[in-house]
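Honest question from a wet-lab person: if I give you the sequences of every part of a complex, can you actually get the arrangement of the whole thing, not just the pieces? Trying it with mine:
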Amino acid sequence: MEYNFKEIESNWQAYWAKNKTFAAKDGGDKPKYYVLDMFPYPSGAGLHVGHPLGYIASDIVSRYKRHKGFNVLHPMGYDSFGLPAEQYAIQTGQHPKITTENNIAVYRRQLDKIGFSFDWDREVRTSDPEYYKWTQWIFIQIFNSWYNKTTDKAENISSLISEFEINGNKKVNASCEESVRLFTVSEWKSFSEKEQSDILMNYRLAYLGEAYVNWCPQLGTVLANDEIKDGVSERGGYPVERKLMKQWSMRITAYAQRLLTGLDTLDWTDSLKEAQRNWIGKSEGTSLRFKIAGSDKRIEVFTTRPDTVFGVSFVTLAPEHELVEKLTTPENKTAVEAYVSQAKNRSERERQADINKITGVFTGSYVEHPFTGKQIPIWIGDYVLAGYGTGAVMAVPAHDSRDYSFAKYFGLSILEVVKGGDLEKESYDAKEGVLINSDFLNGLQVKDAVKLAIQEIEIRQLGKGKVNFRLRDAVFGRQRYWGEPIPIYYKNDIPYALIENELPLILPEVDKYLPTEDGEPPLARAASSWKHEGKYDYEHSTMPGWAGSSWYFLRYMDANNASGIADKKLMDYWQQVDLYIGGSEHATGHLLYVRFWTKFLKDLGYINIEEPAKKLINQGMIQGRSNFVYRVNGTNKFVSNGLKKGYDVTALHTDVNIVDNDILDVNAFKKWREDFSTAEFILEDGKYVCGVEIEKMSKSKYNVVSPDDIAEKFGSDTLRLYEMFLGPLEQSKPWNTNGITGVHGFLKKLWRLFYSAGASAPLSDQLIISNDEPTKGELKTLHKTIKKITEDIERFSFNTSISNFMICVNELTDAKCNKRAVLEPLLICLSPYAPHITEELWKQLGHNESISTVSFPDFNEAYLVDDNINYPVSVNGKLKFTLELPSTLTIQEVETEVMNNEQTQKLLDGKQPKKVIVVHKKIVNMVV
RNA sequence: GCCCCGGUGGUGGAAUUGGUAGACACGCAGGACUUAAAAUCCUGUGUCUUCGCGGACGUACGGGUUCAAGUCCCGUCUGGGGUACCA
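Yes, you can. This is the full assembly:
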């Protein structure tokens, strides 16, 4: 019987679906194991071969863990809100819901064809009202919470209100807006409802606040930092500018320290943890106030180098700093105003492009040095950012390169206070050296000087030791249609959250998916009929893409729950994700937000885990391998790659699906596009050889390879094996079908073990399987393979395990082994990788149960040892000769045997070795 | 600039704790079977040298530690990813 993969694969896919073979059970005696993939956004282009890479890896682990006796949760769903469907809707008028559903259907069909063991009963879609009801519910919990720094967790806003009613806010230790002012109990009680609401807004973890946002006029929406690439929007490539807007935001900064310390408990790669650490950007230093000369006002700065305080030669404010106007003297007014308005109009992109251009302006005012009382000029410079620290810096040009260039450019003084650099050439930024010209800090090392300076600043009440984070609050509102409506309505200009039984707040229908003519979000188009209790306007912005994906891992635990995010008992049972696989592009976006929401939900007691995923692996990207043809300019002639030098040619992308091993199928090429139907070719060795380049996989480059085509030609088992065989999971690599015959040949060889009497014998119609006892050699091959595969899967080294399967099958083929006792355990080992063929052969062997229900075989060390092992013996590392010794010896016995050996004695020539080292039971070294 | 990860045959890659570098696969060459092709099977395949046995060299480059280095340390070159006037 031939290996008919098409029939086998469709039969088993139908069987698994019908029998719900991979449905996870909520509970039981088995230990649980939760394997999660980052769910896809269902785009219109369908899956290409790069998408399933991570899914195949997670599927292998899931199937393996089931064999190992775990109760495995391995779900899949769709991150189905997003901009592309909305853009498509704008262009065509088709409702994004329809587009999304169509795309999901295509994805599902493609995923099913690969034979994944997902539990589809738990499918989630973020755009489903039954799902986003709970996204909205979580938003309301966050809105109704504040962060208590004393208990170091989020609490319901009611505890804050009662504190206000007892003590006012002077004792409150909260993560809140810096600008919040002190009030007493009686003041609180005298405030109007609107005033109270505004005050609480400063404390809420989801709050409405003024924020500089990345505004994209073309899209009519606000973008997150990671939705912008090179200063333009990731989708569409439109310019982006900074704009101050009232926006819903999330106070993720309250969690900065916990997000940082939590990383230590995670089994994530160092590079990923490092990326998160950099993003959170903790820096320790001190605040320091400079008194403005001739005024009672002070400018507060943040510095990590208080040791260099005697080197301050000017203070720089961000152009947006609130004191700019007051500090500007009349004679400088024109220059300052011109500079400020110009700096404000510069977009982020322009600022980045002019990174080396130094700009700034003098205000005309001075501050007093806190220790020396010396007059220090106040400047404005756009290298100081309003959004970081206090928006003002003490400039120490001698020891900070940015201050240095600024000082050099404007001719300001440079005062050396740490020895070690050459200030004629550049600033000395290193945090080591001895302090000079610094009064009480003189002679100290930088490290000690920092400590002493902070101490002194605190004693003199000039400032306070402080920790600053780079992390900023996350803007949560989007001026878009295709997202979760924010469950807020406005009554007398006060925002109120909906209550649970008013959810879900369904996304209303609109006539167009664009912002309104006066710049309101698309939802404003529905406003006339879409009102709370028929009269109050709802919030018109929607949630960002990351909202739905920040808690989906919980929903899979109880995907159809109508009364909560998921049943508490089930969340307590499934706990954390044990293995999370996805792309590294989510390192600082999704993975921070999902950690943030997890911590928040824990604080409120809804879940009892602090981190969403224990182990995380980033799969590498599969790049496209583009093929080129070279058209001789002005003709319809195409010259082969090797001969193109003599011609004036234009390189054109050609469809990789009509190219085999870089040889063009010229007839298919002529049919591919009408204008090529009359093409002529200049061949080399009778072939047309194409050029090659590695690029991102994309429709426009004609280098997209669909998994469907591969499955059609070779079968899904081959696709699965080949994607894993390409190289280490975490490494990026170009797709190249050249080697696929290797893994396909492996499956055919495996099939022959069951249906043929030998390597070159013809295939039989019947299984040729014997019940004979295996030989020692066959058992050794089997157990060696089990051992290696087990170790390979445990360390996620799927490419090497496939090599080990190949070695095993080659050895069994050589041994003409067709014994049940060898082949059955081998099938079980292979089934996570190639589920269809192994299910089929398992059934042919007479089993009624799915192979996925069988225990993974254990290996037996006893079968692995050789009778004799060659021990090369070397003296001082030089290999001299080998001895044959039985492998049953202990290391001590090997030593004795080697020492007593005649040849060893001859080599040592009467000397006694100082050291005898037996390594790997294979090499014996002697140090003389 | 800073941070992180890499650099091994013609190609993808293996070498798990420092212990016989190049497993496995592709490609290529030769052979078997076949009228022929496909499929399948067998042999060879790091470089140089040698008729051959063998020998020398060899993991980006230059040093170092070690009986022993692809692996550890220092420096240089180089590729990829992240991030950026973060005070």
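Two things worth pointing out. Chain A is about 35% helix and 20% strand. Chain A has a mean pLDDT of 87.
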